Amino acid sequence: MSDQRPQPLLRGRYFVLRHGETVYNAAKRLQSNAMHTPLTRQGCEQATMMGQALRGELGERPQVRLHISDTGRALQTASLIAEELGIDWFAASRTPDLFEIDMGSWCGRGYDDVEADHGPITLADHLLRPAPDGEDYVAIAARLTRWIDAVRDAGEDRGDHIVVMHGISSRVLRGLLAGLPPHTEHHAPIAPSLVQGSIALIEDGVETVFFGSARGTEHA
Known about the structure:
This protein has six helices and six strands, in the order E-H-H-E-H-E-H-H-E-H-E-E. It is α/β, with parallel strands linked by helices and 220 residues long.
């Protein structure tokens, strides 16, 4: 019987990371992609531990491509990881295609505050309900597909890659890279939730939890 699995969208190994905890995560407030929300002490520790876990697998000064969502919290997380690995943070590819879900006018507000006005925004399986003037999961998948295409078309998809991004958007990227079927309600592939400070590894279309654990909470 032949292998019916589809060909992976990208070859190589992709270590997909959530940024460390921020002051907004700790306060349960919705973040935007424009504001800088710095890491907490715990967030810095999470980033350092992810870097140490990657160093144990990749060694010091590995030949690896670093991709970062162009947000302050992801860039700060990546700087601590780069320090642990001894790689050049400045050589990283920074892109808005790896941004978190855009929660529109709800950004900056507390979860409780938004829910008092609009009802529950945290859905089953730790997903977020899109804001009326924000971004839905199909739109997230479209820009992440654009990122995948750009990496592949540049001939840079093989080898080892580290991708530092966000809770919700990373789940869509992981879903795409692992070839998961579209979510029945959100119509985009969505991988299971991971706690902050976790690393998912997708290699040739197959995902494993490299570091950390599942069943996280999502605070965009």
